[in-house]
Amino acid sequence: MFSRQACYRLARLAARYPPRRTLATAPSDHVNIIEVGPRDGLQNEKQTIPLETKIELVERLTETGVRTIEAGSFVSPKWTPQMANSSEILEHILQRPPPSAHPITYQFLAPNAKGLDNLLSVYNKSSSTQKRAPSNAPPTPPPSPGAEQTQSPQIDLSIFTAATETFTRKNTNCSIAESLERFQPIMASAKSQNIRIRAYISVVLGCPYEGPDVDPHKVAELAVSLLEMGADEISVADTTGMGTAPKTATLLKTLASAGVNSEDMALHFHDTYGMALVNSVVALEHGIRTFDSAVAGLGGCPYSPGATGNVATEDLVYLFESLGLRTGVDLGKMAEVGEWISEQLSRRTESRAGKAFLARARAKSKE
To answer: How far apart are CA 74 and CA 177, in angstroms?
Structure first.
C-alpha cells in the first residue's frame, strides 16, 4: 500500500499536466474553523498590545467552541515586533492550559530553523517541568457533564511560502525553491517530536507585486510538494483579497485535478474587496470543510499593502450555520470576544454578524 507521501509524489506529474475529471464534494456537514486572530489578526497592529491582553484573547476564544487557535509566531521581532512575546504565550498555554469543554490545538508559526529552535526550547522545557501528581494523591473526581475542564493542549507548527517569486523574496528573503529547501530540516525536526505541520501558501489569488493573475497550476504543484515533504495540511491563502468566485473555482478545480484532497486543505480568505464570504461558499461547493478566520475581522499583512483583515469568524459561523452546516462555535460568545478585543484595540469590530447579534441581544434584554 502506498504511503500518503508516495501518493503525492505520483501526483506531482498531475500538477504539471492536470487531467479533466469530475470534482467530488465532501459529504460532511461539519465545518472546522481555524481561529487565527491572536497571530494573523494581531501581527500587523502598530500599537503595542500587552502580553496579558494576548493571553486573555486566547483564553476567551477557548470558551467559544473553536478547536484550533493560531496563538503566536516565532519570527524575528525586528520584522514582526507584535509577535515578540510568543514564547511567553506558548509557555502559558503549556503550563496553565485554559479550561475548555474539549481539547484545543494551538498553532504557532515558525518559518525558519531559528524560529523552530526557539519554539522547541519552550515546548520541551515546559513539557519536562510540568508537575505530576504524587503517587499517593487521591484520585481526581470525574467532571460534571458539560463542565469545562483542563485539557492537555496539542501544539502544531505552521510554516509559510508563497505562490509568486516576488512575494516570497519580500516576505522571506529567498526564492520559492529555497524556501522549500529550508523547510526540509524544519519539518523533519518537528515530525521527530510528533508535531503536526501546517503549511501556508500565500497570494494564491493575487499578488501585490505581480498582479491578480497567479498561475493556479503553480499553486497546485507547490501544494503537492509540501504534502510530499510531510505537511499535514495546506492553508491556501488569498492574502490580498483579490480572489473572485470564478478564480476561486478554477484554483480549487486545479488543486483537485493535481490530486490534492479537499480534506488536506484549508481556505484562508481576506476581505479586502468584500468577496471573502462569496469565495467561502464556492469553496464549500468544492468540498472544502476547513476555513481560517479571525474574530472581529482582525488582520492584514505587512507585506501586502492595502490588504484588510481576515474574514470575520462571526460572519463565517453565521453563514455556515444558515446553510445547515455545523461549526460547534457559539456565535454569541464569539461576538462578545470580538467586541472585547476591538475595544482593547480602540476600534470597532469589522464583523457584521457580530454587531447585529449583539444589537439584537441588547434590544431583547431591554424588553
So the answer is: 22
- From the candidates 7, 174, 207, 301, give the one annotated as an active-site residue: 301
Q: Could you tell me if residue 56 is inside a domain?
A: yes
CATH number at residue 176: 3.20.20.70
Query: Residue 47: inside a domain, yes or no?
Result: yes
Q: For residue 300, how far is the Cα from the chain centroid?
A: 14
Query: Considering the domain boundaries, does residue 77 fall inside one?
Result: yes
Question: What is the domain extent for residue 72?
Answer: 26-126+151-365
- Greatest CA separation for the chain: 66
Do 307 and 300 form a contact (C-beta atoms < 8 A)? yes
Asked if residue 14 belongs to a domain, the reply is no
Q: Give the pLDDT confidence of 240-253 residue by residue, as tens digits.
A: 999 999 999 999 99
Domain count, the chain: 1
The answer to whether residue 174 is catalytic is: no
Taking only the tens place, the pLDDT of each residue in 339-358 is 999 999 999 999 999 999 99
* Nearest residue to 107 via CA among 222, 232, 228: 232
- Would you state the pLDDT for residue 309? 85
The rounded distance, in Å, linking the Cα atoms of 141 and 317 is: 35
Q: What is the 3-state secondary structure of the chain?
A: CCCHHHHHHHHHHHHHCCCCCCCCCCCCCECEEEECHHHHHCCCCCCCCCHHHHHHHHHHHCCCCCCEEEEEECCCCCCCHHHCCHHHHHHHHHHCCCCECCCCEEEEECCCHHHHHHHHHHHHHHHHHCCCCCCCCCCCCCCCCCCCECCCCEEEEEEEEECCHHHHHHHHCCCHHHHHHHHHHHHHHHHHCCCCEEEEEECCCCECCCECCCCHHHHHHHHHHHHHHCCCEEEEEECCCCCCHHHHHHHHHHHHHCCCCHHHEEEEEECCCCCHHHHHHHHHHCCCCEEEEEHHHCCCCCCCCCCCCECEHHHHHHHHHHCCCECCCCHHHHHHHHHHHHHHCCCCCCCHHHHHHHHHHHHHHCC
pTM: 0.87
